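Lecture 7 notes: from sequence to structure.

We start with a single chain of 219 residues. Read the sequence below before looking at the structure.
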Amino acid sequence: MANFYQHSFAGAISGLIYAVFIVSIGWAESQWTALLLFAVAIIGAFLPDLDHDEGIPVRIIFGLLATLAATLVVYWHYLKGGFALWYILIAGLLIFALVWFGIKRLFKMATHHRGIYHSIPAILIAALLAMELSRQYMDDFRLIQTIGGAMAVGYFTHLLLDEIFSAVTMTGRPFRSTRVTASPLSYRSNSLPVTLIAWALVALLIWRNLDFLKEWLPI
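Now the structure, written as tokens:
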């Protein structure tokens, strides 16, 4: 499979092409919108490797989450007032450690590389979640659609690259598996319950975003 830098480069190229296309058809009216779509596509391009225990994406995401959580705790204590500085700093460090060592550890235990994260339903979930999140902060109908599209483009680019480089590992060594490994472009994982849950989540998110999808669906 391709490595982090190959995925980042491919995500940047696909994001650039997508952003230029959206601008050319008049769905994006500013350079900031195009830049947002470009960034979302890059994020989508490394999301599938969140299930890789030693991958760069999981370290980046959980590093950001841990830092954000610690910052929010420190800020909350500061606004509340009445707390000693040492107490606030220790609270922030404890929250950082909880996310980095605790939650990240649980996440690694609950996932395995090339599981459901590397599949067609994962593309749909990522795109629909991007739309679901966007609609909480935006009212622009078309922008919400294009953000979901950018996420799908980036995510699909990652899986396509893994399919092309499926004969090698992320370090460039020949890939040898002791079990059947699903194709990155598969519609399922090796676990039936996980597959059913994934497709149920797809159905739920489609229902949640039906207003934004109906022009593309035969309904």
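The chain is about 70% helix and 0% strand. Keep this in mind for problem set 3.
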